[in-house]
Specification:
433 residues, alpha/beta, Beta-Lactamase, Rossmann fold, 3 domains, 9-stranded mixed beta sheet, 6-stranded antiparallel beta sheet
Length: 433
């Protein structure tokens, strides 16, 4: 078989992104599959170095026999990619192995974007075609007992390593198969990491550590990609030993470094006639499991009712995240979720429940530079003219260039849980909200 593909462009860059290079790779891959079938072996049982040596030899033999116009570097790239194809997730494997990549976003077979160091950028990775992309998708979801096809064009699942996977395919998606992967950190961020990254300063960390230890109920608010789950993970390390913690999540992401944690995960319905189990169901059940603290990965529905009732009935120290852009908006969204959950009562009583339940709101944001910052730590202080009152204890003031800024200390906390802290830290007046 002769190939007359022109190299063209940068042989280490543009050419490898071209359809010509992908066509060559597809032909070599098909030949590799045929050789495996001829040999009648199961490469899944081979050691990684044996598989790599086999792939390298087969590719070199094929390129030489068919006079394929590839240089040594191109051949090495194909060997690596085909090895990933046989033993991993194909083009995605390298991105999955890169700890600096937090999100992988595939918009059809030619476009793969990644979030790296807080910034979204286009990757040079691509697939051969949409069939190739779907083959990798099916490989990812098959072990999860899920399926995606025209009859069920969307799937949301947790990967075995703890990451989140969302897939949506035509005819619902007009870009071809669209895949979104939120990767799971093998090692959770520690307080020292967040101090090093400038997410918060030592004074704020000391305050929040004390608040967690003193069983304050804390909501961590922020937009998409602001680091809410990582921050909740970090904060939970200050829970005292000997307490029983129950976590409730849609997709299990939390990695609490605590000796007594019970992890619960919701389950969608409609799969082989299995019943749906919602976060609200899990919250109700968790109250019968003798929890000291309940941690909800994200409150986004009717479970807000049960969460506030738990916080108001002896489960102090509970925590959750919520998707909002400011502490005041956080309260508005919480009220909306309580109404969705079937709250029975007046607006005044609803807000009294919020005041009685929530002690602190920690607001996170991602700056234009990609850095994540604690923008505000606000304390719920009571009711004033039928409105929930709060004061800002700490805040981040961005610099004029929008890339960084400074942390500012505001008022002393009023909560009885934080009375000891208020006596020895902070300063009154000045920068209060």
């Amino acid at each position: 078989m002769d190939f007359d593909f022109a190299l063209g462009g940068d042989p280490r860059g543009d050419f490898r992104q071209s359809d010509e290079f992908q066509d060559i790779k597809a032909v070599v891959h098909q030949r590799l599959v045929e050789r495996i079938e001829e040999l009648g072996v199961d490469f899944a049982t081979w050691a990684p170095h044996v598989t790599q040596r086999f792939v390298a030899q087969e590719v070199e033999d094929f390129v030489a026999a068919n006079r394929v116009p590839l240089n040594v570097t191109d051949i090495q790239v194909i060997v690596k990619e085909l090895n990933d194809e046989l033993t991993g997730l194909g083009p995605l494997q390298e991105l999955m192995n890169d700890d600096a990549v937090a999100d992988i976003l595939v918009n059809g077979y030619k476009e793969v974007f990644i979030e790296k160091n807080g910034l979204l950028q286009k990757s040079r990775v691509r697939f051969i075609d949409n069939r190739h992309l779907m083959r990798i998708v099916q490989r990812m979801i098959a072990p999860l007992g899920r399926r995606v096809d025209e009859g069920s064009p969307m799937v949301d699942a947790r990967l075995p390593n703890g990451g989140r996977l969302n897939v949506i395919i035509p005819p619902v998606s007009l870009n071809g198969p669209v895949v979104s992967i939120r990767k799971f950190r093998s090692k959770p961020l520690q307080a020292s990491d967040m101090l090093a990254y400038g997410t918060l300063n030592q004074e704020m960390l000391d305050f929040l550590a004390h608040a967690a230890e003193m069983r304050c109920n804390i909501l961590i608010s922020g937009g998409t990609g602001s680091g809410k789950t990582s921050f909740l993970n970090m904060l939970a390390q200050y829970i005292r030993e000997g307490e029983r913690v129950i976590t409730i999540e849609d997709a299990a992401e939390l990695q609490l470094l605590h000796e007594h944690v019970v992890r619960l995960e919701s389950r969608p319905g409609g799969l082989e006639n299995v019943a749906e189990v919602t976060p609200r169901d899990l919250l109700r059940n968790s109250l019968r499991m003798r929890p000291d603290r309940i941690i909800v990965g994200e409150v986004r529905g009717g479970e807000a009712v049960e969460m506030l009732q738990a916080m108001n009935s002896g489960h102090d120290g509970s925590m959750s995240t919520i998707h909002t852009n400011s502490p005041r908006e956080c309260l508005h969204r919480l009220e909306m979720l309580l109404h969705f959950g079937g709250w029975q009562g007046s607006e005044f009583n609803l807000r009294r429940q919020i005041v009685g339940a929530i002690d602190l709101i920690v607001q996170l944001a991602r700056l234009p530079s990609g850095a994540r910052r604690v923008m505000s730590i606000s304390e719920i202080t009571g009711m004033q003219d039928e409105v929930v009152a709060m004061q800002e204890l700490f805040r981040f003031e961005p610099a004029a260039n929008g890339r960084d800024g400074t942390f500012v200390t505001g008022w002393k906390p009023q909560s009885l849980k934080l009375k000891r802290y208020a006596a020895f830290a902070g300063r009154p007046g000045g920068n209060g909200a």
